Amino acid sequence: MPPCVANYGLEMIRIMVKIGDIALGDFPLLLAPMEDVSDPPFRAVCKIGGVDLMYTEFISSEGLIRNARQSVMKLDIFESERPIGIQIFGSDIESMKAAVGIAEKVNPDLIDINYGCPVKKVACKGAGAGILRDIPKMVRMTREIVKSTALPVTVKTRLGWDEKTKYIVEVAERLQDVGIQAITIHGRTRVQMYKGNADWTLIGEIKNNPRMTIPVFGNGDVAAPQKAQRMRQKYGVDGIMIGRAAIGYPWIFREIKHYFSTGQLLGPPSIRERLSILRKHLELSIKWKGAKHGILEMRKHYKNYLKGIPNVKMYREKLVTLKSYEEIAEVINDVQRHVESMMFAFSPVEQGEQKFTRVPF
Ligand SMILES: Cc1cc2nc3c(=O)[nH]c(=O)nc-3n(C[C@H](O)[C@H](O)[C@H](O)COP(=O)(O)O)c2cc1C
């Protein structure tokens, strides 16, 4: 029985997960912050897909202070997205506090600190996962940020810098002690980057540490309902954060929820639904970033939206080269006609757990 479910006699009482006053249901699914991916158009389709809590892409504290256009644009959040957190990163405590002050002005539900980015230009300057090499500074920075804002502060981090420094169990306790209200841990070290498999063992240890009272969310390699269920049961986490599996497949959230509540796989969305959400994503992307950039940004999403459709390569190749909305929309219509003739629907084959399924179009 996962620790988030209390058993009082015959009744199973599900405990509401909360970050500050934000009620998130009994087992929230979070959309991972992903640079160049988790922008408002992508978040909009994930919201349709059933996500419970979302974050912006990480935003540079220095960029916000300099009023850099790219950083400021990432502060764009919308009422329909709530609850939503703004994620910031940086290595200087005063800059981080100032950036939180700027972020507060757009009225997010919470502030998340990125202590997990492994990218050299971030981590090697002591920001992101770089701070895992200086735990006292990590604790100091967190305390100062918590003190500087009335919003709930959460942290997203990794197990440690490398294999020898996986101090996350102690770190989580110390960050809770200075006031964070939830923690998400990606089950890899900085040195691992995205290689190997995420290991949730220490995430489970944190959750089972009797001193921990804040929600603990697990992250890393969850791409199918059955895996989400296994991680929930085995490690007792309060919720799961999902990143890459949602790219081009925002239905992952509703599929996991359905599996939790019924024990049955929901089955994949129809092709019609997939293409309709793809069109919506494209339109929102153009609306938010303008035609040129909106169309370019979408190129990274087509592959997953179209994954599993037989003989789709020719269409995909066109989608990533065309430059006008009208031409792209026409190719999406061609894909629809192409699949209508085959009467197939599909699901992405994720870790062999969801199988290609034949259902009516
Ligand atoms: C393209 C991409 C961009 C990312 N950008 C961020 C980011 O801005 N902030 C962050 O905390 N993590 C970032 N991450 C890490 C993810 O949030 C997540 O921790 C990681 O992908 C593991 O989860 P997953 O296996 O569900 O994808 C990024 C990951 C990817 C693939």
Describe this protein's structure.
It is a single chain. The protein has 361 residues and is α/β, with parallel strands linked by helices. The protein folds into two domains: 5-262, TIM Barrel (Alpha-Beta Barrel); 271-340, Putative flavin oxidoreducatase, domain 2 (Non-ribosomal Peptide Synthetase Peptidyl Carrier Protein, Chain A, Orthogonal Bundle). Helix content is 40%, strand content 15%. The chain contains 14 helices and twelve strands. It has helices spanning 40-49, 61-65, 69-73, 93-104, 120-123, 135-148, 168-177, 201-207, 225-235, 252-262, 271-289, 291-305, 313-319, 325-340, and strands at residues 5-8, 11-14, 18-19, 22-23, 29-31, 54-60, 84-89, 110-115, 153-158, 182-186, 216-219, 239-242. The strands form three sheets. It has an eight-stranded parallel beta sheet with strand order 5-12-11-10-9-8-7-6. The chain has a two-stranded antiparallel ribbon with strand order 1-2. Strand 7, helix 4 (93-104) and strand 8 form a beta-alpha-beta unit. Helix 7 (168-177) runs parallel beside helix 8 (201-207). The longest helix has 19 residues, at 271-289. It is globular and about 60 Å long. The two termini are 39 Å apart. Mean pLDDT is 92; it is low at 1-12, 348-352 and 354-361. Bound molecules: flavin mononucleotide. Flavin mononucleotide (FMN) is lined by residues 32-35, 37, 57-58, 87, 114, 116-117, 156, 186, 219-222, 242-245.
Form type? globular
CATH fold-level name of the largest domain:
TIM Barrel
Q: List low-confidence stretches.
A: 1-12, 348-352, 354-361
What is the CATH architecture annotation of the largest domain? Alpha-Beta Barrel
Compute the number of helices. Answer: 14
**Distance from first to last alpha carbon:** 39 Å
Percent strand: 5-15%
Strand order of the largest sheet: 5-12-11-10-9-8-7-6
Number of strands: 12
What is the CATH C level class of the largest domain, in words? Alpha Beta
Helix/strand/pairing class, anyone? alpha/beta
User: Helicity, in percent?
Assistant: 40-55%
What is the residue-averaged pLDDT? 92
